Amino acid sequence: MFNKIPYFRFWCQKVLPAVYDDSLSYYELLCKVVAKLNEVIKSTNGVTDAFKELVEYVNHYLDSQNFQELVNNKLDEMAQDGTLANLINVTIFGELNDKVEQNTLDIGNLKDSMETAEGNINTINGDIVNIKNDILDIIDQLGDIGKDLKVAFLSAPDLSTEDPERGYSLCVVLHNENICITYDLGNDATATTLINYLNANNIHKIDAAIISHYHSDHASLARVNALLGSGIEIVKWYLPHANINWNRYIGTNYATLETSIKNAITNAGGEYVAPTSEGYFVDLGDAQLHFYNLSATYYDDYYSYMLDEDMYETTHTNYNNFSMVVSVDCGGSRCVLTGDIEKPAEANMAKNIAGADIMLIPHHALNLSEDATFVDSITAKISVAAAYGVARFRRLTIATTPVAYHAGLVGTALSTVNGKPVICNMGTNGVFAYPDNVGTTITNAGLGDIVPPNSDLDDYVQVGRQFYVQNADVGATIANMPFTTSHSAGRLYVIPTNQNTNPETGSMVQIYIAYFSYAQPEIAMRYMYDGVWRPWKSVLFNPISSQ
Question: Phi and psi (nearest 5°) for 47?
């Protein structure tokens, strides 16, 4: 394998010119190069010979000696002189211990870092939980926005009477896109109105159908059957008087009617419950119900109460006091439905329903036994009454018959205004009332009922009411506005001038306060005489002289 290199031959002289230049010829130059190359070859060949001798020696040495014995002898020698121990302890294990110590230190540092990281992770997790809870709160709040309930007060007159102050029934519907609650069924006409209202609002299920008591202007077997046969699903009925003792009732009782209604519900495959515990609770998701005036202890005071709404003595128990009261909570707002309770029941219920945002004035606002102290004690933002008997209730404080259209002192419209049901809103978006024929609502009931576009102010003849024109665009569509050039937003007040406020033969005044100039507001006024509106007159606010 180690061959010698042959010496360089002078064959190149045969092909190269003999002379290169004046200093050296090609031949002379080539001779020098070849001589030098041959020296290198000679030296290389000497190294090859020496390497061959080394290989032969090693091969011969390994072949002639016991190599393992040599190793063992050397290890014994190193063990005896301490070299091996030093090599193991210092060189090997010393370096290993250094590395172990360094690794231990690194592990300690890593542990500290991990503990720090764990603390940071816990902090981050806590922050994440807080953020999650905040997000859930926001989602919950956003969810509540769509949970507001529309509260519709449906009433219809009893066609058997021509008395405009009497005969109106009671029916209330509370609903949104998820749930529907009904309170009483009214008279026969109202039952039809109820079914039509549900169909018009695409409501096919009633989650809670509540009957306050069995007076004919609130419920009857025929109206229960009409609703059962309407095709509208009724999840559960809530019926009154679970604790009433009909044996203690003085006069004709309602036990037979009660049994008939329960049988009708059962035969139709429905379900009913008659709450017995005060504050009976039902959670419908978007709304929560509490039922009151159920205690047998309360009833002890009712059996012997025999005054009617006009405070005349009768010969029978005043059945109105047994009405089941229901509180409906939604989005932080509360609507309280009081049925026909009168003085003794009102005293028992005041503490349970105080702070209501919307309240049904008890017994159609007919009860002359109280002077609005009960209504005022509830501090409701909106108080609504079925039209039945309202005029007589408010004659205590306002001696004009047009209060039949509006319970002026309690702040809002009755259950019908110009044949339209009163619609209220309750929930996270606030509490306010608006006529059913108004397309746009307001969030401040204090502004009054909204005047819809394309209205005619000549038609606004309900004494004691206040109305609101939202903006100039709406004002431009309204006929008989006082400020036809600016079409200003503003408030309209309708007030009486004497006791004859009949819109056809009487007199009244409209006052319009415009909002277009805060620096110098303008007021317009006109009056009606013999059913005819006179022209508007306007007045600019000017300082009154101190003299």
Answer: -65, -40
- Cα separation, 349 vs 499, in Å, equals 36
168-200 pLDDT, tens digit per residue, is: 678 899 999 999 999 999 887 777 889 989 999
| Strand pairing class (180-183; 208-210) | parallel
User: Which residues make up the CATH 3.60.15.10 domain(s) of the chain?
Assistant: 146-450
Q: What is the CATH number of domain 146-450?
A: 3.60.15.10
Q: List Cβ neighbours of 525 (8 Å cut-off, separation of 6 or more).
A: 509, 510, 511, 512, 536, 537, 538, 539
* 35-80: pLDDT as tens digits: 766 766 666 666 666 667 766 766 666 555 566 676 677 777 777 7
In the chain, the N- to C-terminal Cα span, in Å, equals 140
Cα 288 from chain centroid (whole Å): 14
Contact in structure between 254 and 220 (CB atoms under 8 Å): no
Rounded CA gap, 66 and 56, in Å? 17
Q: What are the start-end ranges of the H helices in 231-384?
A: 255-267, 296-299, 343-353, 373-378
Q: Which amino acid is at 67?
A: F
> Distance between CA 376 and CA 409 in Å, rounded?
9
Residue with tokens 């609507």: 335
For residues 171 and 146, the answer to whether their CB atoms sit within 8 Å is no
φ, ψ of residue 347 in degrees (nearest 5):
-65, -35
Residues paired with 326 in a beta bridge: 291, 337
This prediction's pTM: 0.56
Would you state the torsion angle of the CA atoms of residues 21, 27, 32, 34, taken in this order, to the nearest 10 degrees? 140
Farthest-apart Cα atoms in the chain, separation: 163
- The closest of 180, 190, 184 to 172, measured between CA atoms, is 184
User: Closest by alpha carbon to 441, among 464, 459, 425, 460?
Assistant: 425
Give the orientation angle of helix 255-267 with respect to helix 221-228, to 10 degrees: 10
Q: What are phi and psi of 313, to 5 degrees?
A: -70, 140
Asked whether the beta carbons of 508 and 485 are under 8 A apart, the reply is no
- Packing angle, helices 221-228 and 188-200, rounded to 10: 20
Beta strand pairing status for 237-238 and 208-210? parallel
